[in-house]
Every structure is written in structure tokens, then in C-alpha cells.
Amino acid sequence: MAESQGQQLELDVTNIAHGGISVARHEGRVIFVGDAIPGERVLARVTEDSKSSFWRADTLSVIEPSEHRQMHVWSSASVARKPEDRAGGAEFGHIVPAHQRELKRQVVVDSLKRFAKLESDVATGVTVEELPGDPDGTGWRTRVRLHVDASGRPGPYAARSHRVIPVTELPLATAAIQEAAPLAARFVGEEHVDIVQAGTGGARLIVGQQKPTTITEYVGEREFRLADTGFWQVHTHAAQTLTSAVQEAIDGELFDPRAHNLDLYGGVGLLAAAVADRFGSSTRITSVESDKAATGFASHNLSEWIGAEAATGRVEKWIAQLASSANSHDRARLRASTIVLDPPRSGAGKQVVQSIGGLQPAQIVYVACDPVALARDIGLFADRGYDLTALRAFDLFPHTHHVEAVATLTRR
Ligand SMILES: C[S@@+](CC[C@H](N)C(=O)[O-])C[C@H]1O[C@@H](n2cnc3c(N)ncnc32)[C@H](O)[C@@H]1O
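That is the input. Now the predicted structure with S-adenosylmethionine docked in place:
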């Protein structure tokens, strides 16, 4: 069907879809359109027509703008540029922040309806909460990766492409990163350059596979040590927001500090510390993480709690092994447990959900950065006897389509 590629169409945009794209219809066929807003009429160019069920298109110009449209916060990503020259990573930057959150709310509610068959008040009543910081949604990013092109120029990729776009500013990044970012430098032979702003010491540049250095991040007064190349929540206020959200998501009536509580996909122990901070010095919790360097830091970060420990392993294997080796006392401690999990974008998946379900914990707190993966897993947990009893969502990534959710699931 390649004859439609490149064709220009006037489209009425009706809905938002997962992934930061909007939905329009043309002659009965769904077309996913980038850089548009539901309610707008746009002139778009078809970029993909290989599937019979849907096509993709880029907005070329806006014919009837939405009342929620604003000038893009990043001129390098503006619809005024040719689609292939627009920087990626700020695909909602042309939408006023409050409406970005409304569209993200719709995606969360719609995902739960479609993939978990859930239309309860808990599911439909969710809102997407704004984080502290600049209300215009800029200046929050403490980690930025710039890719490097064949001539050594660094920049973000264009949306859905590996084409490096040279830029002169990074408005989503913190002031320290904007100042330190070597946007005019050349890095011939490197694949990428990372700029990281740690809790202390300004912005650092990490070129290619440079050896890691230990940095310190703070959540309130609490210190977390980690590698500058390792995982840490990206928004300046994300670690504190998720700490409070996880603490509040746990039903205190169902929490047993002496149970075999788990923090799965634990990184350097941020959420295990959140749990132990709320429930006190006798809290028992094991943080499980596949990155050995991270669990080394987690052991240090959790050392104030005698019952907190870090284990290195892939969750899917580690938990299956735990289930197969548990005796009746272990099983009772697991049945009384609270399990926090914070998997990567792909979610926990069927195998891990089945293993967790098999342990029959009292409650599960699921921190998710992908609403579709979360909804799929909530549906799988429902089959294992767990109901969604609380849900919050947070705008951890303003001007992008990403949204973070914290869900509590309780054993029926
Ligand atoms: C979204 S991060 C969350 C980290 C931590 N909860 C935090 O908030 O800082 C997900 C973590 O899961 C780890 N990870 C990814 N896949 C894993 C797996 N199959 N088993 C264990 N850990 C995994 C990653 O290394 C990363 O540290």
C-alpha cells in the first residue's frame, strides 16, 4: 500500500492514544498522528501505510488549533519545523501542562478499561498529579542522554528515528545541565554523552562507556549512594514523590514488619527505604535488583535497618526460586508480606505476576511507568485474586507522554 505514503490529508483529530500520538480517522481507517491535539483539524502527511488496520502521519500544519495548544516549549521540537527535523523527547510540549495531565489521565483510564477490563471508581477516578517545580513544566530533568552522529555532533534523536538533531537548548533539563551540556562540542567516535545532575556537586559529563563514579542523591535528609551511570529517578522531585506515594499506598492494617516483605526491581533501595522509614527499625524487607553494582549500593543505603537487605538477581528467577525453596514458615511470612514492585517499562509480565500471586502476599504496591503494561498486569493479578484498591498517577515527565502510576492491589 506504499502508494499512500507521503500523501497529505486534512484530518479531524478525535482522541489521544498511548505513546504520545493522537487518533484520527480517514475513510474509516485509524490514523495515528504526531504533534496534534484531540479536537484539532490538521494537515498531515502519511508516513506509514504498510498495515491495513492503521496508518501513521505527521502533522505538517494546524488548520483549526485546540484551545489547549501553546507555542512549543522547545523550538527544536516545534511543528513549525519539518517533521524529520523535530527533536524527540518532548512530544507534548505544544500542549498546555494542565491539558497534558488530562490527556495522560485519559490514557491511564482507557488502558485500565481495555487491558484490565476495569471501570471501577478507583480506576476511573484517578487524576494525574502535578509535581512541585516550575508550573510551566520545564527545568526538571536531572539526566539527559545526547546521541552522537557520524560527524561527532551530539543531540537528541528525532521522534521515532535514530537521526540526531543538533539543538542549542534543553529546556526540560535543570539549569545546571543546560549550562553544562556540550551542545556545540564534537565527540567523534562516541555513541552517546550523558549529563547527570546529582544531589551535590553540579552537573557531570559522562562520555561513552566512561568508568562510573559514586554520587550521592538525597530524599529529604536521607542519603543514597549510587553510580553516576546507574538508575535514579529523573525528575528533581520524583524520588521524594514516589517515596511518599509508596508509603501512603501501603495499607498499614495489612502491613506486618516481621513478614518477608519485598522491594522488587529495587535499584539502589529507594522504595525499600521508603517502606522501612514508614514502618520503623524492625521492618524486614529484601530489595531485589539485577544490576550487581546497584545492589552493592542498596546494601549500603539500607544498612540502618537490621532487617533490610539487598539481593542480586533477575526478579523472574529469584522469586521462582524463593517460591520453590520456601518451607511452611517462610510461606506464612510471605503470605503476610507486602510486595512493592517497580519494573522497567515492559512491566512485570505474566511469569512474575504468577509467581507473586503464588506467594499470596497480603498486598502489592505496583509502581509503573507504562499504563498499558500496568493495566495488563493488573488484569493478570485479578485472575490471581487481587483487586485494585487504590491508584494515583503523577506527572513525573512533563512535556512528554510518559506518566507514572502507583497502584495498590489487595488480596480478595
Ligand atoms: C524503574 S527502575 C526502579 C528502581 C528503584 N525502584 C527506584 O525507584 O530507584 C527498575 C529497576 O529494575 C532493574 N531491572 C530491570 N529488569 C530487571 C529484572 N528482570 N530483574 C531485576 N531487576 C531488573 C533495573 O536495573 C532498574 O534498576
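The pocket of S-adenosylmethionine is lined by residues 231, 233, 265-267, 270-271, 289-291, 294, 314-316, 342, 344 (CB under 6 Å).
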